[in-house]
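Summary for the funding panel

The consortium committed to producing paired sequence-structure records for every protein in the target list. Below we show the first two records in order, beginning with the earlier of the two.
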Amino acid sequence: ELLPSGLCWMSQVIPMTHPTKSPVILYWRDPLDCLSSLPNHPLFHKELDFTPRRVYITVQQLYCVYSKWMTGDDAWKMQSNLPSGATLLGTILSLGKTNISMMTGDRVAHPLLISLVNIRMSTPLKTLSGAFLLTALLPVPKFIHKKKHLRGVLEDCLIHQCLDIVLVPLKQAAREGVMLSDLVGHSCYCFTPLASYIIDTPEGMILVTVGGKTSPVTMASYKQFGVPFLHEPRT
């Protein structure tokens, strides 16, 4: 008998309006395939939580306890807006920058990782747990442009362009839902909203398209860091 195949990689040459030193190639795997493989992993079979709930410490329900994403208000509201019987799969994305080769071209890329908030918090922190899967390698090309600051702008635009390509299935599943199977073969009607984004400050500034000494989370500039009041969120 044939064994199940692993997750397939795809590649695409990204056409550029400005010249680069080498062709820009995006490598990625279908994020829905990555997400569907996590609930089917034997190690996570007893570590999954699909039930949004509210936890109170008193019978009068005066104080609510928030210990994980499924006990939060956002998960409760999202589940309330889903069709009856639908399953909420909160998606975690992580984006960074790393060297993928040394002394052989010094290749650099932005690895995009994906996971689920439905996996209990203690599990993803374990070494080699496999809770985060590599779903894409976003290219970092060397643009040929006489103005250095415009090279950085072009690189940032490329990241957004690649994310639009990779995350199309995930966005569609978040809006319309998708049928996925669990470990025992049962089909589930799932929705995949973005629950968390794990990024460093440089990647955060790229995603929200701000530059300089500016907060990627709020409307505060560097001169306002540390002031004793909350600034408006950057949306």
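The next record, for a separate protein in the list, is shown here:
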Amino acid sequence: MAEVSIADKLGYIKSKIGKHVDFPKKGVIFRDIFGALTDGKACVYLRDLLVRHIREKHPDVELIVGLDSRGFLFNLLLATELGVGCAPIRKKGKLAGDVISVEYQLEYGSDIFEMQREAIKPGQKVLIVDDLLATGGSLSAASALVRKVGGVVLESLVVIELLELEGRKKLDGNVHSLIQY
């Protein structure tokens, strides 16, 4: 059986991503990752492409950090495939123990991300993963948290990037997205 090309895998995944017009509010087109995640082949292709990218670009990664909450769908999977650890970044009040926090801006206010202080060792090489890059606020806050405890952010890795929102401009490090709209 012939190997499926990267372009074909991306095309298949993209065909399964849902599109919801006027959600969560009028004028917004919501790109729904769950359409792809309910399809077994799309899940395998997503895993293959994400793992391949990390092995090629960041073979020295030591920890995969997933953002609350869809990033959690990917960080354990990737960490397991790569044989490295994983850690969560959560909304305020969801983690026990000694936590550090960063406030970040949303289009309608602000929010706070937290991480357990001992989750990352100083100098540890970290890759941040989430499903979506929109305005860049959450990924920027996550990078700040990782750096606050001395971690080295290798890259922010997302499945979907909404180009017109220019979230990449808010990030001061490497960003890789599989699919762009």
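Regarding this second record: The longest helix spans residues 40-57. The radius of gyration is 16 Å.
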